[in-house]
Amino acid sequence: xxxxxxxxxxxDLMVQFVSAFDSIIIKxxxxxxxxxxxxQVRYVYSPKQRVIHDLINRARHITLPxxxxxxxxxxxxxxxxxxxxxxSYHPAQTFMAGVSANIPTSNFLPQPVPINIDxxxxxxxxxxxxxxxxxxxxxxxxxxxxxxxxxxxxxxVQTEQEIRSExxxxxxxxxxxxxxxxANSPYRISAxxxxxxxxxxxxxx
Length: 205
Fold this sequence. Notes:
alpha+beta, elongated
């Protein structure tokens, strides 16, 4: 364990996760239910408590609506450990000078460790219609999961090898409405839900 087997796996999965959601456009309607404005929802990598703190102190001028995403935990997934094999071999091609054709070889891929990345996602809005639109944007497509496509780290293979990771939605959304609101505090609606990314961590050869 003297080497650092860091291949950006968790970072790449989080980037993919946010990219899958970070394109929500909500509409503002007038009394006749006609569209009068469109707003792109902002995504930030931060716990909800930090976002609320910044809203109160106006330190970073965060405006609503906003979606906060952060990692809650990372755990080994025993249900995806099939055996204790050392790894697997994948076909590759090696070119040698003076040889007219590529020589078939193989790359050794050490058995990665299956991990579950538990994600908290919090939605903060000022209006109920904004909240309804954001929830309507992702719930129908996460019934019950979506798939992220990413690559085996290039340190192990010469050609790209795709990995498909399931992102399982928790299925529950807890809505919170302000009940005891001081006169100088803005009205906010919050919704909290969770996801689990089924990823992998790779060890050194």
